[in-house]
Amino acid sequence: MDEKHKARMARKKEVVDSAIAQADRDKGLLLVLTGNGKGKSSSAFGMLARTLGYGWKAGVAQFLKGRRDTGEEAFFCSREGVTWEVLGDGFTWDTQDRDADIATAVRGWEVAKKMLSDPSLHLVVLDELTYLLNYGYLDEERVLSDIAARPPMQHVVVTGRAASQRLVDAADTVSEIRDLKHAFRSGIRAQPGIDL
Ligand code: ATP
Ligand code: MG
Question: Of the CATH numbers 3.30.360.10, 3.40.140.10, 3.40.50.300, 3.20.20.140, which one belongs to the domain with range 28-186?
Answer without folding.
Answer: 3.40.50.300
